[in-house]
Amino acid sequence: MFLRDGGPPKAAALDLGLAALVTLDDGEKVDHPRLLKKYGARLAGLQRNLHRKERGSRNREKARQEIARLYALISDVRGDALDRLTTRLVRENQVLVVEDLSVASLVRSPRGKGRRRKAGLNRAILDASWGELLRQLRYKCAWYGRTLVVVNRFFPSTRQCSACGVTGPKLDLAVRGWSCGECGAAHDRDVNAARNLRVEGMRLYELVASTLPPGRAMPSLIRASEVPDVVRTA
Ligand SMILES: [Zn+2]
């Protein structure tokens, strides 16, 4: 690798999930800001209230403003919690590896009657948290001269054993831990995924680093989908 200080860069990989908002490859788990628990019922109530009001009425407008205020509050609380997390991660690491956000489609609606509205809210709040997390990582990496590596979403990070590299069978979302049938390693589902992400992210990082002309700084964003182009034009 071609790094100014010669050593391997400090790096962290983030697995985004439901059980924990973020799981780092060193095993640390960062909880979701408890937004849904705190505000979900109130938001659902306000929305039901809105739909009961007559179209074009003053009361409907008031209900709409109340919802807007609650959304703004949720957004502030979320932003503060994520701000602390992303600042710490960017300060402590030279490279941060994340999965493409479209992986968030892994969030499935719970089955059963009457759960769709809640699932929808749940989903909206989670999506917004992940989106905000990546947005903050992206601009802070640029600001602090760090590199954010976005790994391709088809990378089998969950099913692959981070100890021996064998790809296991598909895991149900409810399965939080598993043992590798090949090497016997016991894995926490999310930590294993984060470790695999780190390996793949660092592979891409080094690929780009190796093609960089001398004196050129590493880009603040590396996308797996764009790496072949970067390599070809370098
Ligand atoms: Zn294994």
UniProtKB/TrEMBL annotation:
In the C-terminal section; belongs to the transposase 35 family. This is Transposase. Residues 130-197 form the Cas12f1-like TNB domain. InterPro entries: Cas12f1-like_TNB, Transposase. The keyword DNA-binding applies. It comes from the Bacteria. The keyword Cell cycle does not apply. Residues 9-108 form the Probable transposase IS891/IS1136/IS1341 domain. It holds the Pfam family Cas12f1-like_TNB. Keywords: DNA recombination, DNA-binding, Transposition. It comes from Streptomyces stephensoniae.
